[in-house]
């Protein structure tokens, strides 16, 4: 596979840094900042201290102007570090979205006046194309919008969207019929039925997702935010009560001065969970960005986080576990018929079959026996393949030609009054199936003639990846419409944990519902239209980019590389996001202990000199202590930005062990770090204060 994809730009690249810096000031606008309530409160605190600073300049402050001014400055920096981390997380995505936009230059389209007539068209701009328009795209032309190939087959270069430079086949019928606007036809011509209105195309969705324009908070994020708001409210109440309490204490003790507004505000900001609140948006955005680097487009943040908790992964067989170009390789006669008879009937049954399987039968009949597709009789009637019937064919010249899954064809033949099923059929079907290939049984009228052997190949290196999933505690289940023997053979070769054969779309759906009802988080990877209902139901729905339009629409994650084991990376990023968030919350909250020791004695020292005993850090002066705590509170955000963006390193290990490790590092670290940090800052600040 040619490796490609978004070239990694470092987040510390000036190309990302500079716009992020500007953006971080723009994000100070209260109309957007209120979405992060804790940081919004810090902004209000900054405004209050700034106003107090101006009042003290005019000689009306409780504290010296320089002190209030410095506190205000560092509170502003606290907010700016928060908006900066978010802007930085968005930076790479924005740069990439801009380059995607560039590829989406104004494309012209040949809109057909009637879908059947490829020569009768009007040239229009891509933005005039609507759903259900038909367009003709010839070699060398860009496809103007998302759609399905309605007729023909072509080689398409999708590099503009996927970064993959090797061209892919896109053809009508089957699971490889979807085309993406902005990609280029390099050989042959196709007629495309447009499936997306302007502004709603895959490229549009991709750009808006990458830019974060449509990013919604995930349920996990909201839950954490509710906790943070509750904590903040408690601290707000505590601080508000300190003021009357201190006035009372001063009166009772007969000495000292009450706590000033500046100090109260400083205390509030230091105790509020600002570290996690500041970095919370960046953690989620950066996670999506890391996935995008792996060529995965997540259309919802919720899906990625759900991936962090996945227990069961369901995979479709053809096109997901196997390469998906099932090809006819052999005609095998049964019941005393000849292979030529089988080939003839199979050819007839495939003449108007638009699926890759059908086309490959026509090709094989031609290669092997030089058979040609003859002009169809006027009364010819196509029986199109469906996942429900598992049968396709043609009624022509008074005869009914069929091919399909063995039980389906057998049932059809019986319904026509067919005598008996040839005795050797079962053995032939079994032999083909046991080799992991798909047997299609061919019939003409009420008689079964033989079997077509459809071969498919398992994607390389898939076994080790399933092994990794297993070690992460994720069960893999293959679901296929194919017969149980073929399914068993492929399942054994690919080493999935379990499989479900002869599954119709509603059975795929049911399996997911059952697993969900049992309390499992279910991921599904698929590519076919018949996978779409199941994809829509799954918690994590990954569609192959090579898949059909309905599959891509039902999914919430799209893998541009169409690699079913990409789920491993998605799970990893999901776990990283959840862990990073948890770790920074632990850190943020355990930080408070040191801040109590820094601020509380400093605040009340003038009233109760014995509180000096609490100054275990030996901070220089009360003002230096308060300033140092405020500075540490701001600087720690900046220091943790790299961790928030890169995510906690993920190592597969048992959940309890992981939890203990993290508690030790971030809990204990969170208690100790500020003692050291505040003391160090105080040693410098104390020189001046
Ligand atoms: N063009 C066709 N004409 C007739 N029968 C077909 C055709 N294509 C497939 N079949 C039969 O229908 C069955 C189910 O179709 P298909 O394999 O597409 O289902 P699926 O659920 O998508 O499974 P998979 O996991 O393999 O993609 C096949 O196993 C085969 O027996
Ligand atoms: K804080
Ligand atoms: Mg399929």
Description:
By secondary structure, this protein is of the alpha+beta class. The chain has four domains: about 270 residues, no CATH class; about 80 residues, Distorted Sandwich (Calcium-transporting ATPase, cytoplasmic transduction domain A); about 120 residues, 3-Layer(aba) Sandwich (Rossmann fold), CATH 3.40.50.1000; about 130 residues, Calcium-transporting ATPase, cytoplasmic domain N (3-Layer(aba) Sandwich). About 50% of the residues lie in helices and about 15% in strands. It contains 24 helices and 22 strands. A seven-stranded mixed β-sheet has the order 10-22-21-20-11-18-19, sandwiched between helices. Strands 2-1-3-9-4-7 form a six-stranded antiparallel β-sheet, with no helix packed on it. A six-stranded antiparallel β-sheet has the order 12-17-16-15-14-13, with helices on both faces. Strand 1 and strand 2 form a beta hairpin. It is elongated, with a radius of gyration of 33 Å. It starts with 13 loop residues before the first helix and ends with a helix. About 50% of the residues are buried. Bound molecules: adenosine-5'-triphosphate, potassium ion and magnesium ion. The site of adenosine-5'-triphosphate has 24 residues, from helix 11, helix 13, strand 14, strand 15 and strand 16.
């Amino acid at each position: 596979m040619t490796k490609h994809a978004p070239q990694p730009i470092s987040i510390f690249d000036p190309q990302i840094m500079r716009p992020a810096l500007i953006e971080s000031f723009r994000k100070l606008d209260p109309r957007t900042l209120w979405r992060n309530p804790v940081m919004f409160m810090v902004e209000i605190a900054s405004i209050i201290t700034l106003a107090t600073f101006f009042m003290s300049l005019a000689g009306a402050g409780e504290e010296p102007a320089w002190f209030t001014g410095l506190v205000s400055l560092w509170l502003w920096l606290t907010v700016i570090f928060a908006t900066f981390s978010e802007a930085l997380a968005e930076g790479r995505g924005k740069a990439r979205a801009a380059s995607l936009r560039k590829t989406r230059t104004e494309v012209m389209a040949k809109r057909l006046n009637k879908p059947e007539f490829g020569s009768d068209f009007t040239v229009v701009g891509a933005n005039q194309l609507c759903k259900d328009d038909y367009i003709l795209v010839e070699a060398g032309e860009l496809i103007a919008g998302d759609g399905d190939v309605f007729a023909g087959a072509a080689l398409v270069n999708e590099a503009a969207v996927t970064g993959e430079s090797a061209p892919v086949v896109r053809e009508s019928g089957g699971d490889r019929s979807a085309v993406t606007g902005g990609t280029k036809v390099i050989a042959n011509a196709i007629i495309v039925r447009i499936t997306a209105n302007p502004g709603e195309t895959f490229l549009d969705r991709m750009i808006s997702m990458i830019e974060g324009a449509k990013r919604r908070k995930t349920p996990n994020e909201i839950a954490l935010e509710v906790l943070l708001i509750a904590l903040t409210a408690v601290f707000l109440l505590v601080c508000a009560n300190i003021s009357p309490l201190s006035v009372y204490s001063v009166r009772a003790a007969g000495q000292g001065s009450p706590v000033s507004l500046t100090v109260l505000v400083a205390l509030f900001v230091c105790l509020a969970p600002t570290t996690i609140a500041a970095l919370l948006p960046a953690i989620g955005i950066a996670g999506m960005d890391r996935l995008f680097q792996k060529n995965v487009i997540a259309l919802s943040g919720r899906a990625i986080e759900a991936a962090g908790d996945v227990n069961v992964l369901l995979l479709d067989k053809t096109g997901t576990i196997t390469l998906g170009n099932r090809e006819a390789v052999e005609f095998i006669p049964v019941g005393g018929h000849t292979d030529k008879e089988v080939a003839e009937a199979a050819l007839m049954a495939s003449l108007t079959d638009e699926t890759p399987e059908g086309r490959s039968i026509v090709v094989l009949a031609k290669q092997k026996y030089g058979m040609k597709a003859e002009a169809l009789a006027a009364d010819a009637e196509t029986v199109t393949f469906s996942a429900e019937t598992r049968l396709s064919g043609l009624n022509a010249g008074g005869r009914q030609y069929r091919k399909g899954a063995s039980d389906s064809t057998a049932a059809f033949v019986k319904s026509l009054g067919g005598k008996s099923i040839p005795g050797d059929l079962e053995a032939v079907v079994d032999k083909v199936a046991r080799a992991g290939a798909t047997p299609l049984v061919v019939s003409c009228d009420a008689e079964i003639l033989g079997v077509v052997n459809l071969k498919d190949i398992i994607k390389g290196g898939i076994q080790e990846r399933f092994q990794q999933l297993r070690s992460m505690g994720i069960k893999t289940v293959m679901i296929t419409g194919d017969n149980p023997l073929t399914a068993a053979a492929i399942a054994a070769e690919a080493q999935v944990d379990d499989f479900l054969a002869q599954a119709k779309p509603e059975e795929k759906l049911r399996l997911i519902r059952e697993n969900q009802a049992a309390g499992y988080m279910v991921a599904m990877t698929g590519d076919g239209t018949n996978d779409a209902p199941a994809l829509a139901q799954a918690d994590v729905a990954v569609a192959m980019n090579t898949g059909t339009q309905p599959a891509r629409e039902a999914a919430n994650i799209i893998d541009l590389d169409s690699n079913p084991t990409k789920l491993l990376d998605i799970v990893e990023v999901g776990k990283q996001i959840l862990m990073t968030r948890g770790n920074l919350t632990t850190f943020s909250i355990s930080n408070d202990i040191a801040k109590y020791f820094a601020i509380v004695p400093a605040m009340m020292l003038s009233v109760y000199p014995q509180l000096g005993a609490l100054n275990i850090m030996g901070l220089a002066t009360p003002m230096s202590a308060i300033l140092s705590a405020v500075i540490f509170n701001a600087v720690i955000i900046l220091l943790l930005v790299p961790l928030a963006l890169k995510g906690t390193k993920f190592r597969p290990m048992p959940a309890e062990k992981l939890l203990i490790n993290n508690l030790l590092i971030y809990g204990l670290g969170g208690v100790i770090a500020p003692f050291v940090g505040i003391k160090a800052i105080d040693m410098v600040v104390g020189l001046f204060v």
